[in-house]
Amino acid sequence: MNRRSTICRICSKATQGSTLIRILVAEHLPLVRRGLVASLNGEKDLRVIADVASGAYIVPAALELSPDAAVIDVDLPDVDGLTAAARLHEKAPGCKVLLLSSQPSPGQVRKAFAAHALGFLSIDVAPEHLADGIRRVAAGRKAVDSDLAIAALTSADNPLTPRELDVLRIAAQGAASKEIAAKLYLSVGTVRNHLSRIICKTGARNRGDAVRIAAEAGWL
To answer: Is the separation of the CB atoms in 183 and 175 below 8 Å?
Structure first.
């Protein structure tokens, strides 16, 4: 199997008109990916020139084909969408990024902007709104759901210390206090104190709730 067939499916209708916006689609679910491709190709000024199923293939495809914009699912395998967006900004800055999420949150919006993405929308967005979002990011403008943008701007600053974040990241993997202590070279009592402060600062019910709150706020 050659590299191109593994990485991406190149659209047979090569774009020649300068008015067309050339798009790379990255989505790991085949039915969703095909739906995105079909929907975008239905727009007169949009053309999908490649689609990939893994985040690891985004930068190679972009370097080979020079798309104007990339539509990337946040939850991609191998390399997640946020990491891929940051790598695209570094390796192929001419390719503007619009991220899609099945569970959008203010924290994800903040992380998307930190990764230099210009767009962030729910994967359930109406096709016409997605098309308009792509046009906006291709032109260098932001495309974000207004409610999410407001929530991201007004969400509280991170109250956790770097050490508390270390503890919470490991706790998020399901580790018990003893395991967290071993990984961070701390005593079990110190870890429990950190977890108590984390729960208090986040207003959570327990450590699992604290993980959820911190993730949604974009602190993890």
So the answer is: yes
Query: Helix crossing, 127-138 with 30-41: angle to 10°?
Result: 70
Q: Which two tokens stand for residue 49?
A: 């020139």
Q: If you average pLDDT over residues 208-215, what whole number do you get?
A: 86
Per-residue pLDDT tens over the stretch 138-164:
999 988 876 665 444 545 577 888 899
Cα 160–Cα 152–Cα 22 angle in degrees, nearest 5: 125
Q: Which tokens in the block code for residue 216? A: 């949604």
Contacts 24+ apart (CB under 8 A), 129-136: 130/36, 130/39, 130/40, 130/71, 130/98, 130/100, 131/39, 131/40, 131/43, 131/46, 133/98, 134/21, 134/23, 134/40, 134/46, 134/69, 134/71, 134/98, 135/21, 135/45, 135/46
- Taking a C-beta distance cutoff of 8 angstroms, is the pair 48, 3 a contact? no
Return the number of other C-beta atoms located less than 10 Å from residue 15's C-beta. 17
